[in-house]
Amino acid sequence: MGPLEPKVDQLIVAALCFAAVFFTFAKLLLPRINKALEARRDAIDGTRDESEAIHAEARQIHAAYQAELSEARHEAARVRQAAVDEGHLLIQEVRAEGQRQRDELVASATAQLEADRIVAEAALREDVLRLAIDLAGRILGEPITDERRAQEIADAFFAEVDAAASTNA
Fold first, then answer.
1. Coarse DSSP helix, strand, coil percentages of the chain, rounded to the nearest 5 percent
2. Structural domain boundaries of the chain?
3. Cα–Cα distance between 114 and 116 in angstroms, integer?
4. Could you give the angle at the alpha carbon of 125 between the alpha carbons of 121 and 131, nearest 5°?
5. Helix (H) or strand (E) holding 146
6. What is the pLDDT of residues 97-154, one digit of tens each?
7. What is the pTM of this model?
8. 3-state SS class at 42
9. What is the largest CA-CA distance in the chain?
10. Residue 48 and residue 117: Cα distance in Å, rounded?
């Protein structure tokens, strides 16, 4: 007898033991194992569903954050552009005000120079007339007393000088 020819009574005992162990596993342990595996599968599926929901919510929050960030960048660009435009306007206003003040100063200075020129010209004409009368009196050897006549001669001379100056200009 060897392993290839088992004894019938040993074979029956082995078959009964196998059947007892098999039925014990099939009726008692296998349902508990299946129940534990089912619970584990449900827990994994629930965790996966929860993780997918959290991931979807995170994507929505990220998209909202990106949209707000983009809007904030656009708003910052608009504010910068408005500030640049306002700066240009202020510079133009200051330049215009400076130009106006410069023009006023130039006009005032020109008017003052013209008034000073007229006063200086009148004073010089009087001095030239007085010197001319003194010189003419020294040349003649006697003082010239007809100031009205001397004034007419000086006026005629100055009129000729003014006419010559205006034709040259």
1. 90, 0, 10
2. 8-168
3. 5
4. 140
5. none
6. 999 999 999 999 999 999 998 999 888 888 888 888 787 777 767 777 777 777 777 7
7. 0.43
8. helix
9. 187
10. 101
